[in-house]
């Protein structure tokens, strides 16, 4: 059985949704007035407020009865973009088609989101994401956190939009503004068309199912143009013209077969001529390749620090000049991922799309990220590490990069700077450290030395 | 010149001022309401505006909060009763006035809602909040705390409320519909608030009965004990509602007093009927009851008809002194106690009964020792009065006359309750100190004075009958005609003795509101309807009321299935094809289809024209020997099909020339190929 607070919150959410969907702003004010009149008029011998209550209630009853009949044939089409970005308002159009033979005046349109209420287990996980000190909570704090989780799962908010008058058998277009608040997928289940009663208090509603979703990309900060020092590195195979898989066909010469050469590099015609295995040799390319290492090892399922880390990663991947260089995004989710963008390989949009779906990794060790980095380290010219903690394992990774003399920018995101030993964070020519405090990320980023 | 900015938002002009005046009227705070209304409405003529920031609004809000606290503290120390809450409500428009005036005289049309809360005003976004509608609602609630118990409040609420919500109505609906719905709502509101009030009274009564039956010593409240307002402070407020209608027989004068209950022991502030025992009243015939009374030798009876509405299953009848017989009264049971109280058990609702009475008789039992007892506390004051008036040696009749004169000349009638002096009982205060009081004081004092002189006396309550209503051509008895008097036992008969100064009647009438006439009209209406219903009931006519169900059902059906839909369903049943008007069904191309069908070329169900043409192109003609040029025929048909498609599916349709083309092409095609 679900615990009482959870059921209470679920019920509150349902009631709140019903109230906001059914009552107009005037209606809500009316309801408050009714409530006050009911309380004041409780003793019918002392005040006349019971007459106010009775009058208001009668108006409300008529308004509610009026909402029973609303079967006009109306259809909705929505043109939704594929992406949105956290914090950037998004506008799209919704077309209302009036299929009736009468003019439709005073309609309102409201988006319905998929039910964002978390299950008890999810809510419990969310509560546990707070530090132990803050975990024992009162019901009101719990409710505040519940609202936060609901907002997070819903991902975006919209406002009710007034529809201009629609003539009989015609359409009209309205612009709906959606405000994304969290990265991830926003699911819209349908649209509610509301028609107020003659008093303008209570809405008759028609729910039109219209499932669509859009991906909300992470929030982005302004990042100064970073020029990481470091030489161009030989890249295995050619990527200048290639897709993400395989080597290029940029031919240089033929040479004798050496054990270990791939079978598909054998030049069969030459073998036939010379009667010994000959292989093709392709041009090796030299250019800059940077790694963007994102630390996702957070025990909590919902963490503001990780959100900021993803936002910082998104800011770098977006502002990085990828025409002439490559950028490898490395992180560990269900498995170790490495995605390369630049020089015609992957696009920034794809990288943002991946970042939109990053989830914390709490079942693997940090070492799995180190091994991913090790595999590619020989090709890297520079590295940007976005860390969400500063412990021995992370220090090990940084020391490893330092030992290879790879220029590295280390960004540590934290909510409490006092626990960090500042002396450890003094950089040198090839290493720059920057602490980013939660809530002051932009200030931290603008302090970055652009060329060192 | 810059035009004056009015900070009303959507609120109708002048309405707020009028509402404030209405509040002043209801709460009698005119001296404050007029300046407030002038300041608010004056904002349209005064061109000064201040540029107020959120902090400044916040300071004004703090001032209002401070005013509320000061007001509550002040009232707490001065009122010392629960009335405090209602006084606080009455004063709300005054204490919140600074905030409203800040809005009206600021450069913004609304205040920033952040100013009302203790939040970080810098961090969040400004929330514009228009105070006019909330202030309007506040004025209404505060006006209700004035508790003026007549129709003026509801009338004001309806008119002002209607104007206020007129501007918020949905443009979708016609104003006539809106007005009709509002009138219905107003009527529902009347029925609702009357029902609410009655429900409240019922709940209160049942709770009281329950508490007394569980913890009290007496089973019934009314016939056995009565809590008086003796010793209370404040002001008695009595209802203006008509409770009884009294119609004396032609050429007879009605009794001055109608008695409900008699009590015989005084325990300040309560009157109690000791050992009250109810015995059933015998019926003479159906609905006719004979009260127990000493059999008179010779009776000269008169009659009168009383109409009233019973709210409970058990009710006490209002009867004149000397009642002998009650006629036309349908009840389960009628009981009578030794003090002449008659209690009825039956269905609540409207009743009209006739009483036969003889003024010279009394149905009450002879005096008992309790009819002479006096509380010790009151003895001193009573003895003092007896000495003052020198009553000891006088005959009973002389005593009555002296007491009557004494109370009429030395005392004043008032509804103001003045309480008592320290170390005095309330009655002693009344007799010796202020000599001002209402009927309960006079009746109690008289009863006890007579007892102190050895004359048995009882305390009776009921109604005074004095208002003759021209409209109704009968006497009406209102809630405020409730009265108390003394029954004195002289010459072997209990006689009524009322010492309350006669000035009480005009005084009570003056306190009635001039709006009362509207209430009277509705009361008369309901009385006439009740009479008609009773007439129908008596003649088994109620069954015809069921006929009203038929139009009601019809209205409900019309409501849910409007006429248009009804017609549509009728046509649908007759002719299904007429259900939709699909464009292009009248296209001539279907003639070609019929022609080809005759040739044995049949279009499959749900096969499109183009698919069909394709199929015809590839399959041989069924009659190979005909000299048809198949390719040319299909080519020409294709052009027609294209036109037809546009006619059938293009939302723009065909223009008139294209439509003629379709027609002519089809015709020429048919002429060319169908005859071959």
Describe the structure.
- The complex is a heterodimer of chains A (452) and B (676).
- Chain A has 452 residues and is an alpha/beta fold.
- Chain A has helices at 4-22, 25-40, 49-66, 120-128, 139-154, 268-274, 304-319, 348-356, 367-376, 392-403, 441-446; strands at residues 74-79, 83-85, 90-98, 108-113, 156-158, 161-162, 170-180, 184-196, 203-217, 233-235, 251-256, 278-282, 285-287, 289-294, 326-332, 336-341, 382-387, 408-414, 431-437.
- Chain A has three domains: 4-217, Sandwich (Immunoglobulin-like), CATH 2.60.40.10; 237-283, no CATH class; 286-446, Rossmann fold, CATH 3.40.50.410.
- Chain A contains eleven helices and 19 strands.
- The longest helix of chain A is centred in the N-terminal third of the chain and has 19 residues, at 4-22.
- Chain B has four domains: 15-168, no CATH class; 225-525, no CATH class; 549-578, no CATH class; 584-674, no CATH class.
- Chain B has an eight-stranded antiparallel β-sheet with strand order 10-11-14-17-12-5-23-22. Chain B has a four-stranded antiparallel β-sheet with strand order 6-21-24-25.
- The chains are: A alpha/beta (452), B alpha+beta (676).
- The interface between A and B is large, with 35 and 45 residues.
Brief overview:
The complex is a heterodimer of chains A (452) and B (676). Chain A has 452 residues and is of the alpha/beta class. Helices cover 31% and strands 27% of the residues of chain A.
């Amino acid at each position: 059985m679900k615990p009482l607070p959870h059921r209470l919150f679920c019920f509150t959410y349902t009631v709140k949704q019903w109230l906001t969907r059914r009552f107009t702003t005037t209606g809500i004010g009316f309801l408050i007035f009714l409530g006050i009149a009911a309380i004041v008029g409780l003793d019918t011998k002392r005040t006349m407020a019971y007459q106010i209550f009775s009058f208001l209630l009668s108006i409300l009853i008529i308004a509610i009865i009026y909402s029973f009949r609303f079967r006009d044939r109306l259809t909705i089409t929505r043109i939704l973009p594929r992406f949105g970005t956290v914090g950037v308002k998004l506008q799209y159009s919704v077309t209302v088609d009036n299929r009736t033979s009468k003019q439709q005046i005073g309609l309102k349109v409201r988006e319905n989101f998929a039910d964002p209420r978390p299950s008890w287990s999810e809510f419990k996980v969310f509560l546990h994401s707070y530090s132990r000190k803050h975990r024992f909570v009162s019901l009101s704090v719990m409710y505040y956190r519940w609202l936060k989780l609901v907002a997070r799962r819903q991902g975006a908010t919209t406002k009710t939009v007034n529809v201009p008058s629609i003539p009989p058998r015609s359409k009209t277009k309205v612009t709906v503004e959606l405000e994304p608040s969290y990265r991830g997928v926003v699911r819209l289940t349908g649209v509610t068309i509301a028609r107020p009663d003659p008093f303008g208090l209570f809405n008759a509603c028609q729910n039109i199912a219209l499932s669509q979703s859009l991906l909300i990309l992470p929030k982005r900060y302004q990042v100064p143009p970073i020029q990481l020092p470091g030489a161009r590195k030989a890249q295995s195979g050619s990527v200048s013209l290639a897709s993400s898989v395989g080597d290029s066909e940029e031919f240089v010469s033929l040479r004798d077969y050496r054990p270990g050469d791939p079978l598909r590099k054998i030049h069969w015609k030459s073998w036939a001529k010379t009667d010994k295995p000959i292989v093709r040799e392709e041009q090796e390319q030299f250019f800059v390749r940077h790694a963007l290492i994102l630390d996702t090892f957070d025990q909590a399922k919902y963490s503001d620090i990780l959100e900021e880390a993803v936002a910082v990663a998104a800011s770098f991947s977006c502002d990085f000049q990828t025409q002439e260089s490559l950028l490898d995004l490395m992180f560990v989710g269900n498995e170790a991922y490495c995605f390369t963008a630049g020089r015609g390989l992957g696009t920034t949009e794809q990288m943002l799309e991946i970042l939109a779906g990053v989830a914390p990794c709490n079942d693997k060790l940090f070492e799995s990220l180190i091994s991913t980095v090790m595999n590619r380290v020989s090709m890297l010219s520079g590295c940007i590490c976005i860390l969400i903690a500063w412990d021995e394992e992370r220090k090990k990774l940084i020391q490893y990069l330092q030992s290879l003399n790879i220029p590295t920018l280390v960004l540590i995101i934290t909510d409490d700077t006092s626990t960090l030993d500042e002396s450890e964070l003094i950089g040198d020519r090839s290493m720059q450290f920057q602490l980013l405090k939660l809530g002051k990320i932009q200030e931290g980023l603008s302090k970055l030395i652009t060329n060192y | 010149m810059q035009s004056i900015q009015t900070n009303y938002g959507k609120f109708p002009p002048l309405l707020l001022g009028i509402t404030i005046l209405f509040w002043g009227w209801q709460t009698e705070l005119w001296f404050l309401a007029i300046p407030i209304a002038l300041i608010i409405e004056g904002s349209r003529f005064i061109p000064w505006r201040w540029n107020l920031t959120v902090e400044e609004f916040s300071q004004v809000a703090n001032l209002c909060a401070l005013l509320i606290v000061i007001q509550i503290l002040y009232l707490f120390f001065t009122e010392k009763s629960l009335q405090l809450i209602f006084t606080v409500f009455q004063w709300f428009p005054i204490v919140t006035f600074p905030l409203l005036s800040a809005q009206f005289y600021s450069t913004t049309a609304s205040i920033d809602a952040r100013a009302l809360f203790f939040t970080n005003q810098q961090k969040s976004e400004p929330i514009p909040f228009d105070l006019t509608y909330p202030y309007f609602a506040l004025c209404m609630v505060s006006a209700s705390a004035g508790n003026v118990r007549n129709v003026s409040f509801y009338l004001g609420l309806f008119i002002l409320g209607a104007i206020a919500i007129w501007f918020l109505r949905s443009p979708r609906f016609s104003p006539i519909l809106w007005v009709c719905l509002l009138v219905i709502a107003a009527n529902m509101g009347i029925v609702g608030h009357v029902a609410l009030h009655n429900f409240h009274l019922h709940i209160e009564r049942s709770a009281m009965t329950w508490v007394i039956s569980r913890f009290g010593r007496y089973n019934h409240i009314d016939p056995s004990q009565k809590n008086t307002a003796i010793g209370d402070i404040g002001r008695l407020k009595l209802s203006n509602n008509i409770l009884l209608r009294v119609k004396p027989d032609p050429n007879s004068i009605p009794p001055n007093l109608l008695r409900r209950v008699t009590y015989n022991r005084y325990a300040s502030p309560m009157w109690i009927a000791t050992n009250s025992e109810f015995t059933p009243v015998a019926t003479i015939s159906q609905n006719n009851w004979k009260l127990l009374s000493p059999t008179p030798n010779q009776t000269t009876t008169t009659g009168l008809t009383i109409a009233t509405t019973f709210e409970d299953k058990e009710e006490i009848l209002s009867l004149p002194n000397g009642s002998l017989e009650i006629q036309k009264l349908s009840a389960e049971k009628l009981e009578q106690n030794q003090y002449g109280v008659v209690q009825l058990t039956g269905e609540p609702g409207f009743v009209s009964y006739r009483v036969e009475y003889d003024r010279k008789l009394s149905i009450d039992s002879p005096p008992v020792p309790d009819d002479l007892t006096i509380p010790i506390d009151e003895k001193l004051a009573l003895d003092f009065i007896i000495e003052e008036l020198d009553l000891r040696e006088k005959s009973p009749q002389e005593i009555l006359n002296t007491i009557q004169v004494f109370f009429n000349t030395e005392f004043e009638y008032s509804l103001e309750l003045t309480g008592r002096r320290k170390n005095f009982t309330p009655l002693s205060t009344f007799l010796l100190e202020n000599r001002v009081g209402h009927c309960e004081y006079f009746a109690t004092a008289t009863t006890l004075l007579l007892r102190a002189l050895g004359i048995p006396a009882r305390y009776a309550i009921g109604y005074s009958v004095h208002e003759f209503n021209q409209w109704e051509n009968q006497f009406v008895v209102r809630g405020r005609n409730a009265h108390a008097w003394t029954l004195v036992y002289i010459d072997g008969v209990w006689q009524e003795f009322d010492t309350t100064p006669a000035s009480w009647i005009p005084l009570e009438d003056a306190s009635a509101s001039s709006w009362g006439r509207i209430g009277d009209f509705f009361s008369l209406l309901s009385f006439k309807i009740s009479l008609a219903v009773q007439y129908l009931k008596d003649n088994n006519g109620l069954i015809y009321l069921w006929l009203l169900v038929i139009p009601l059902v019809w209205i409900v059906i019309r409501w849910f299935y409007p006429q248009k839909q009804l017609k549509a369903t009728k046509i649908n049943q007759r002719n299904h094809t007429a259900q939709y008007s699909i464009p292009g069904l009248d296209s001539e191309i279907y003639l070609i289809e019929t022609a080809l069908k005759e040739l044995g070329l049949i279009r499959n169900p749900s096969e499109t024209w183009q698919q069909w043409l394709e199929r015809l192109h590839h399959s041989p003609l069924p009659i190979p020997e005909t000299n048809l040029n198949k390719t040319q025929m299909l080519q020409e048909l294709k052009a027609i099909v294209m036109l037809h498609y546009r006619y059938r599916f293009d939302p723009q349709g065909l223009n008139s020339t294209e439509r003629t083309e379709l027609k002519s092409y089809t015709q020429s095609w048919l002429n060319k190929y169908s005859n071959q």
